[in-house]
């Protein structure tokens, strides 16, 4: 950027030199032609040797002046050459072609606006600032529907947040799926000076459903047409973006372009960079009417107040009705209708320079919009192929996109200095809770983790499941990190019912997971698995937060609280549904225990029945879970009784009991103070007991723990004395909280702990 500024300064200096040096020279000559206040003629006649005024000194002076003039002319010649070279390299130099000039600073049609567009240029260059107040709020509207589009919006928003220096107000026209995902995401993202408002896209369907549309965006691809009606009536202007946009500059520069609109200009658009509207892509290709190449609606500047006064709603409807009589349907959704309106009313458009929408679909002229990386403003992946599109510089664009795709969103939680943020109750409560903690406490980091707000992206992949109508459906609930991804396919093969998983990942790991899942036939064939990404933050693994996230987003009346390292027996899903009815779980407070076993072998011939499992148990191929390191955790299950049991039997709670259970979805959450390794499940089972849940062991159910390398947290527990001290402190505080909450009945937990 600095290099460009210096180049333009040289350009300016050269221009001034060419203008002023000759002028100064002629002034000097003219002044020198006066003698004693009288003009001295420099005509050839008077400068001959025989002239009475001729002297040796004046002859020498004249020769000196002539030499100086030749020097100046030579300097001017060199400067003109440099200027010519500078112009040929300058982004302001227009490079024509036979149809239309695609310059760096494409104008809006008339010469005055063209000059304004050139001045607009890269307004961040050479010290020029956008005509936007420091704390002025920039309004952005995006139509978003479904799981994939919700992921795309996140990347778009990251690119905007990365460059922005102004408060932002996003207006999201979203269906119920996108609203659930993005509302949770922004609520947990907690970015200062960013406001989000949602508008129900499903309510708008009736406004555009009468328009047949062949575009892959479906009915939602037409909703930009009704923004004047959808957005608040007091909102005067808005930038409208497609979800497949990536910003490479501050969005305030685009917002500043509104000040260049004149007369009846109400739409800011970039010319379409493909030949689509020229109608020559294939034989009998018949596009909608458009002005020249037409305009692309991936980036739109809308002057809403003027559009409403012009009766935009009536304007586009009449145009669409007229054209549909012959065209029958739209091919490019709202873009076709916008262009048909503009064809009839060209005065509506302010043509944006094409770097505000560099369109990367196949066979576009996008390469003529930029000559250097610094020229890029907005990249538009407007091909169904997205990142696989053909383009000379696609690797560069792909890398830029991937940078934001994998960028740590937590780093974008930065304050805008000098711009006060709106009061946020959640943020204020969080700050109050954190301020009450003692930073000198050796267990401060443990206590702080309880209040950490982790950015959460629900339903990262497509999810589609309707629970069984008989109200017996059960969802398997588990949590995992990147090092346990290999368990997903095996679990899906063992459990055919719905699954809710919370994954603790960084932004980059989330993309690795996405590629892994999309490359797996097993995972892609399952639409009843909800993947919820909880983004990494802090030094501990927030195991109970992850469990709570997975528990909260189930759609079935019951859930099986498992762990990712366990494979359920084949047929367990159907067995549990029958047990729910048999044990009347709907009307009783029961926790159904699935007995847990383990193997030390990475390759295991999984038992297909209880009899086969008992045989493997006797042979030493299987063991009861953690019998050799933590017997107390599952001893109350009473495995000796289970061997011969044919009916469910009840067991009593004991200290450190942590079985895997099936419960109703309204059971209490896990306690977030327990992070990493230790007491995370024990505390939950203790609370179930305090709430008088009855523990019932299922006689024909089982699950087997598969071997894996020790987790980082268990390694810390074993090697770090302070870790163990803090865990003991948290246990004691939890027990005290239980006593205060449940009264006399909870005293047994203190007694049991002391006796154990």
UniProtKB/TrEMBL annotation:
<dbReference type="Pfam" id="PF13896">
    <property type="entry name" value="Glyco_transf_49"/>
</dbReference>
<keyword id="KW-1133">Transmembrane helix</keyword>
<dbReference type="InterPro" id="IPR029044">
    <property type="entry name" value="Nucleotide-diphossugar_trans"/>
</dbReference>
<dbReference type="GO" id="GO:0035269">
    <property type="term" value="P:protein O-linked glycosylation via mannose"/>
</dbReference>
<dbReference type="Pfam" id="PF01501">
    <property type="entry name" value="Glyco_transf_8"/>
</dbReference>
<keyword id="KW-0812">Transmembrane</keyword>
<keyword id="KW-0328">Glycosyltransferase</keyword>
<keyword id="KW-0735">Signal-anchor</keyword>
<comment type="similarity">
    <text>In the C-terminal section; belongs to the glycosyltransferase 49 family.</text>
</comment>
<dbReference type="InterPro" id="IPR051292">
    <property type="entry name" value="Xyl/GlcA_transferase"/>
</dbReference>
<feature type="compositionally biased region" description="Polar residues">
    <location>
        <begin position="44"/>
        <end position="58"/>
    </location>
</feature>
<comment type="similarity">
    <text>In the N-terminal section; belongs to the glycosyltransferase 8 family.</text>
</comment>
<feature type="region of interest" description="Disordered">
    <location>
        <begin position="42"/>
        <end position="64"/>
    </location>
</feature>
<dbReference type="GO" id="GO:0042285">
    <property type="term" value="F:xylosyltransferase activity"/>
</dbReference>
<dbReference type="InterPro" id="IPR002495">
    <property type="entry name" value="Glyco_trans_8"/>
</dbReference>
<feature type="transmembrane region" description="Helical">
    <location>
        <begin position="12"/>
        <end position="31"/>
    </location>
</feature>
<keyword id="KW-0808">Transferase</keyword>
<keyword id="KW-0511">Multifunctional enzyme</keyword>
<feature type="region of interest" description="Disordered">
    <location>
        <begin position="88"/>
        <end position="109"/>
    </location>
</feature>
<keyword id="KW-0472">Membrane</keyword>
<comment type="pathway">
    <text>Protein modification; protein glycosylation.</text>
</comment>
<dbReference type="GO" id="GO:0000139">
    <property type="term" value="C:Golgi membrane"/>
</dbReference>
<keyword id="KW-0325">Glycoprotein</keyword>
<keyword id="KW-0333">Golgi apparatus</keyword>
<dbReference type="GO" id="GO:0015020">
    <property type="term" value="F:glucuronosyltransferase activity"/>
</dbReference>
<protein>
    <submittedName>
        <fullName>LARG1 glucuronyltransferase</fullName>
    </submittedName>
</protein>
